[in-house]
Amino acid sequence: MSEVNTTQTGQDPTAKGSGNAATAAFQNHIYKSDTSKERANEIYTDLLKAIADVAHKHQVTYDEYRVLKDWMIKVGEYGEWPLWLDVFVEHEIEEINYNRHDYTGTKGSIEGPYYVPDAPELPWKTTMPMRESDKQSEQLIFKGQVTDIDGNGLGGATVELWHADEEGYYSQYAPGIPEWNLRGTIVTNENGEYEITTVKPAPYMIPHDGPTGWFIASYGGHPWRPAHLHLRVKQPGFREITTQLYFRGGDYVDNDVATAVKPELILDPTPGESGLDEVTYNFALDKS
Ligand code: DHB
Ligand code: FE
């Protein structure tokens, strides 16, 4: 048996388990912003006005107000603020901050709640760490090159890859999965190339047995994200990219609960010589 990590999550893959693990991981850091009092005043004034406008527009009842208050308390109890915010808000923040610059390199997308820094380093041509059971899932060869925006290869760039298994679980956020399963930091060769064999991920259902799930059910929505790979690509002197890649024609590509799909981020795998599906995707990094 390989080593298992159940320290953060308890025994069951529940919303409360993954939520509290995501909150604990997020709170490992100290966050600061240099927002001035003037800017804070403008933002809060507009935010409170937006809330007031919605309350008046929909003539919100006291029953509804109390349900909202109870729900917000429960989101905290279940540790689900990272989940709820990353599904419903992060994509707006990501888009605003991409558009503030005149970037032309590869588009970003949301980080989501399940990134873990410092995943073990792997060579440019590698197979992701996986369990015997993951080896039974459909495999994918994901390859390409990290370049600057003129197409020059960036040797020694790092490609951090993390994704869910075939059941939709992320290591360190569900019990019984080895710590670094389907997580790694791949270092490109001298031409900036990488070639990674991994499990082809499946569509992912955000935890639905907690307050984020109740929220979605209350308006008749669905809790699914399309199958996706998470990536963070870095090279000193260049803009770091946090992004996701999706699979053309896959379920929920057109209907992602987290609104994080962009047309430039959709892969088209085809059967390769090895018998496995293969796909090439190149990352172009803007200068920082
Ligand atoms: C959530 C999970 C993800 O894997 C992701 O990419 C985005 C959001 C979530 O559960 O909130
Ligand atoms: Fe994800």
Word description of this protein:
The strands form three sheets. Strands 1-5-4-9-10-11 form a six-stranded mixed beta sheet, with no helix packed on it. It is built from seven helices and 14 strands. The N terminus is likely disordered. The protein has a domain of 165 residues: Protocatechuate 3,4-Dioxygenase, subunit A (Sandwich). It has 288 residues and is an alpha/beta fold. Bound molecules: 3,4-dihydroxybenzoic acid and fe (iii) ion.
Q: Biggest sheet, strands in spatial order?
A: 1-5-4-9-10-11
Strand content: 15-25%
| Rg calc | 20 Å
The tally of helices reads 7
Low-pLDDT stretches are 1-11
Q: Cofactors and ligands present?
A: 3,4-dihydroxybenzoic acid, fe (iii) ion
CATH architecture of one domain: Sandwich
What is the CA–CA distance across the termini?
44 Å
For the largest beta-sheet, the strand count, sense and barrel status come to: 6 strands, mixed
CATH topology value of one domain: Protocatechuate 3,4-Dioxygenase, subunit A
Structural class: alpha/beta
CATH superfamily of one domain: Aromatic compound dioxygenase
- CATH uppermost class of one domain: Mainly Beta
Q: Tell me, briefly, the overall form.
A: globular
How confident is the prediction overall: mean pLDDT? 94
Q: Could you name the key traits of this structure?
A:
binds fe (iii) ion; Intradiol_dOase_core; alpha/beta; binds 3,4-dihydroxybenzoic acid; globular; six-stranded mixed beta sheet; Protocatechuate 3,4-Dioxygenase, subunit A; 14 strands; EC 1.13.11.-; oxidoreductase; 288 residues; single chain
